[in-house]
Write a structure and sequence with these properties.
Helices cover 40% and strands 14% of the residues. By secondary structure, it is an alpha/beta fold. The structure holds pyridoxal-5'-phosphate.
Length: 387
């Protein structure tokens, strides 16, 4: 008998991946131009020039293993960057290079969770948090946000208890596009301090940050400047349009409770999960491109066109402040039905149920501008069915 839990996980696949595969099949039948695939967060904006140059330059470099946490000079570069760019205290020996944010999440969760521990997330949230938490032996606890999907510490309060191991924060947020303000993070930190004082060990704050640089107007506060027991789970997938190359890092704040022991647990989890080391070519490449971002103006143009067009047609949504998703209210209570109807017009939208809230759809607008422009008549016909 094979592992039943894994068979189930493999067979059910994620709603997003399912739609993505459906879209590929439809493209073969009705033509690439006629399918409007807004399912997956695969950046269509090219990587910045420095990334492409580094990849070419590094073709002749050493491709052997690095040490498990990564090349030391790369960890030094990242540590220095965190200190100068965000003013947060950091140390290279507390940086662990990973294969992107998913690996950062699984490694940290496996490193910190003891059976029965609770991991608190804010709805709406990235659906894989549930898979990663449960596989690590934890229980996912879903707390609400406010009516604009912003962080409200008082709404979170009832969900924190003696079993809470960590809170995962994701800002800019997938799928809502919310960017949490300094005031919101300050209130969260005060709550975590208060709750941590009632226990032997503090609650950890895990900042999942694949979209940090993709904030249109607001600065994204650095959690380590607000709460000492913080870890940043970073990925270059989105900011540098490198999603398929798998590169990111974990940064443990030196002020974290027993930071060195926590780092050992991270190394142990990385080893147990068989990651060995992050891709060395990309460790080197990103170290030389820190602070660079794909053209965010391209994402802003997509957001503005889609937001203005859809709201004019009568769709309702909060304007995204960051990331590259539009979270739109479904015109009928069951978002799954709405997404099925959308398929009639070759519009592939993701229903919100797996993000932990009902009645919304996520539109991933990191696609070619032409896809958005061509899709607008289809959106118009779709909303027409509800008039
Ligand atoms: N966390 C969030 C909130 C995401 O949206 C994603 C990817 O879409 C990930 C983590 C995983 O990113 P990566 O490609 O770096 O594994």
């Amino acid at each position: 008998m094979y592992n039943e839990k894994m068979i189930k996980l493999g067979e059910e696949r994620s709603v997003i991946r399912e739609l993505f595969e459906y879209g590929n099949a439809r493209k073969k039948i009705v033509g690439v131009e006629n399918v409007f695939d807004f399912s997956i967060g695969n950046p269509a904006v090219p990587p910045p020039a420095c990334v492409r140059e580094e990849i070419r330059r590094l073709a002749d470099s050493d491709h052997g293993y690095s040490s498990a946490p990564g090349l030391f000079q790369v960890r030094e570069a990242i540590s220095g960057y965190i200190e100068t760019a965000f003013g947060a205290q950091m140390r290279p020996d507390l940086i662990y290079m990973t294969c992107g944010a998913s690996a950062s999440l699984t490694v940290v969760l496996n490193g910190i969770v003891n059976r029965g521990d609770e991991i608190v997330v804010l709805a709406p949230f990235f659906p894989e948090y549930r898979v990663f938490t449960e596989h690590a032996g934890g229980t996912l606890v879903v707390a609400p946000t406010d009516e604009n999907f912003h962080l409200d510490a008082e709404k979170l309060r009832p969900y924190l208890n003696k079993r809470t191991k960590a809170v995962i924060l994701n800002s800019p947020n997938n799928p809502s596009g919310a960017v949490y303000s300094e005031g919101e993070i300050e209130a969260l930190a005060a709550l975590l301090h208060e709750k941590s004082a009632e226990r032997e060990e503090p609650i950890l704050l895990l900042a999942d940050e694949p979209y940090r640089e993709l904030s249109y107007d607001k600065k994204v506060p650095h959690v380590m400047n607000f709460y000492e027991h913080s870890l940043v789970l970073y990925s270059f997938s989105k900011a540098l349009s490198l999603a398929g190359e798998r590169i990111g890092y974990i940064a443990v704040s030196p002020k974290c409770h027993r930071a060195e022991e926590l780092f050992s647990a991270i190394c142990g989890a990385g080893r147990a999960l068989g990651f060995v080391c992050a891709p060395v070519l990309f460790q080197r490449a990103v170290a030389n491109c820190l602070g660079q971002v794909s053209d965010i103006g391209e994402y802003r143009r997509r957001r503005d066109l889609l937001y203005q067009s859809l709201t004019r047609m009568g769709y309702s949504c909060v304007k995204p402040e960051g990331a590259f998703y539009l979270f739109v209210r479904s015109p009928e209570p069951d978002a799954n039905n709405f997404c099925e109807r959308a398929k009639k017009y070759e519009l592939l939208l993701v229903p919100s149920d797996s993000f932990g809230v009902k009645g919304y759809v996520r539109i991933s607008y990191c696609v070619d501008m032409g896809v958005i422009e061509r899709s607008l008549p289809a959106f118009e016909k779709l909303i027409g069915e509800y008039r």
